[in-house]
Model the fold of this input.
Amino acid sequence: MPKVAVYNMQGAQVGEMELMNEIFAVEISKASLHTVVRAQLNNKRVGTKSTLTRSEVRGGGKKPYRQKGTGRARQGSTRAPQWIKGGVVFAPKPRDFSMTVNKKIRRLALKSALTSKVNENELIVLDALKLDAAKTKEMAKVLKALAVEKKALLVLDTKDETVLRASANIPGLKTAYVNTINVVDILGHDKLIVVKNAVEQIQEVYA
Done:
């Protein structure tokens, strides 16, 4: 079982914690990671783009000029694609980009993402996180003590309005809960900060 250090809010090591092999020491599956990341990003897309075809453009009911004798190519409507203000050929229409991924693949991808953070020493376990006031500088002190300078994902065990409000204005810091963590967020942040109770919950849920 991999072991990680447990730190307090002052950045001092206060112990160690053993992690489950089934979650934090699995064989990383790049295929499942790719599938789940692609699915998550596609599911965020909103297929609202829509352009008018020649049948949808207003006007164009009258033939612009007679069929023969003008020396120009015959035309039946001023809303044909080759005309200014005409319709668009093969116009993009609203579509559904969503993808479905089965539960086994999603779980394997999440475990692979967590394992990658352990392997790269980017997992930080906090014994507890309790702030005296909901102020940005209070949370900034904790991050500085933990030597977190870049993007970080903070995973809490329970909802804490004080921590949420103190974290809201810090660039690059995102908060999540055990039931809301996902592969894109884990891989998209340089550090993964998890409260000790949240680690235990993750091991209970995904074991």
